[in-house]
Amino acid sequence: MTPEEILQGLYDETLKGNGPRVLELTHQALALDMTPGSLLFDALIPALEEVGARFERGDYFVPEMLIAGRAMAGSMEILRPLLADTGVETIGKFVMGTVKGDVHDIGKNLVNIMLEGAGFEVIDLGVQVAPEKFVAAIEEHEPDIVGFSAFLTTTMPMFKANLNALEKAGLRDKVIVMVGGAPVTQEYADVVGADGYAADASATVKRAKALLKERRSKVPA
């Protein structure tokens, strides 16, 4: 296969969610000395963007998004260390976690895959993440954005607890705070004082990019 055919194949098979074929094509590409950056920016990211667009149009649903995301994640496992070695610039750093009291992570994991596909470095803290753990991770990793995920109405109040913990630690102004999860609304995000809210994985990527651009435009050169 030519490099062009491999890139087209990676794009098509990621859209279909054909994980084994995506892995096979990734190995073929590297054997041909194609750069990890070209696979990411010329095939995988465009495929994930198309997945997001199809989801927004109602052509794809959560299962299709998950399958495509997992197909890409397999390739990313191989490419991530190679991208780090080649110094490919990430667009931003994102700390993510499901709040204390909540063990749901399918939505969070899908968001993580989409964020990585868009060029973010994602530090996933997992589930049942206490406010002090978010604080420690922000101090250690100095992310651009932190994401709080909640799937239950009973755990949504942890957003406010987390924000209070950031305030107390003097970190609130140093990081963009995004919230999301099935029961979460824009109105609730506004009430607790989050900077951003997104209803699904595709929207999260768009909102994160917009918030980051807005934040950076305000920073003096």
Automatic annotation (TrEMBL):
Residues 1-91 form the B12-binding N-terminal domain. The lineage of its organism: Bacteria, Bacillati, Actinomycetota, Actinomycetes, Micrococcales. SUPFAM superfamilies: Cobalamin (vitamin B12)-binding domain, Methionine synthase domain. Keywords: Cobalt, Metal-binding. Belongs to the methylamine corrinoid protein family. It comes from Nostocoides japonicum T1-X7. This is Dimethylamine corrinoid protein. One of its GO terms (molecular function) is cobalamin binding. Signal peptide: none annotated. Pfam families: B12-binding, B12-binding_2.
